[in-house]
C-alpha cells in the first residue's frame, strides 16, 4: 500500500509512524486510518520490530476525525457504510506494544486513538479533549468507554459534556498519560522507551500486554487467574531461563525471543 497520510520509518527495533496531514492538523480520515492499520499490521508481522511508536506533529497529534469528510453524512450513510471508525479497532489487533507520543492537540478521535495505544507519553504542550458535543455529535471511537476507565467517571463526564481540554499536567495526575517530557525531547524519550521494551523478550512482552489488557475486559478474579497462567507459561520460554540465569551470574541477559 502506498502511504499518503503517514510517514513510516524504523529506528533499530522500533517501528515509528508519524501522522502526516499537517494542513488539517492530522485529522483522521478513512484513508489515513487504513494506512495506519496497514503499517501497524506490517510492523506487527516484522520479526525485526519489537515495539511501535505513533506520533503526530508539534502542533497536533491529531485534531479528531475529519469533520469535513463526515459533515454531510446521513444516518444511513454512516450506519450502512459503517463509516468513520470502522477501521479503527484494527489497532487493537496489534500484539506488540504501541506507544502514543503526543504533542499539541489530541482531540476527539485523536484522543481516542491515543487511548487505543498501550500507553501515552505526553509532551508538556499536549492537550487532550473530547469536544464532539460542540459539533452536535459524540465520541465514536471508544472515547466514552476508554476515558472513564483511564481518568474516572467524573472527569470523563466533565470532558465529554463540557468539551473542555485537559493539559498534560492534569492528564498525568488523572492517569491518562504515563509521563510528561519537554516537547523538544518527546520523540527521543518515546523512542528510548520503545527501544527498552524492544530489547526485552518479545513473547514475554506480548504476554504482559495481553495480561494488562485483561484487566479491562474481565473481573478481578478472572484477570488474576489469567495473569497467573500467563506467568506460569513464561517458564516454558528459553528467555525466562536466560533472564534468571543472567541475574544469578550477574550479567546482562541475551534474549532470543524463544
Ligand atoms: N477535521 C478536519 N479539519 C480539521 C480538523 C478536523 N477534526 N481540525 C482542524 N482542522 C483543519 C481546520 O479546518 C483548518 O483547515 P483550513 O486551514 O483549511 O481552514 C486547519 O485544520 C487548522 O485548524 P484551525 O485553523 O482551526 O487551527 P487553530 O489552531 O485555530 O485551532 C483546534 C486548532 C482547536 C484543534 C481547532 O482546529 C479545532 O477545534 N478542531 C476540531 C476539533 C474537534 O472538534 N475534533 C473532534 C472531531 S469529531 C470526532 O473526532 C468524532 C470521533 O469521535 C471519531
UniProtKB/TrEMBL annotation:
Its EC number is 4.2.1.17. CDD domains: crotonase-like. This is Enoyl-CoA hydratase. Keywords: Lyase. Belongs to the enoyl-CoA hydratase/isomerase family. It holds the Pfam family ECH_1. One of its GO terms (molecular function) is enoyl-CoA hydratase activity. SUPFAM superfamilies: ClpP/crotonase. It is an enzyme of class 4 (lyase). The keyword Disulfide bond does not apply. It comes from the Bacteria.
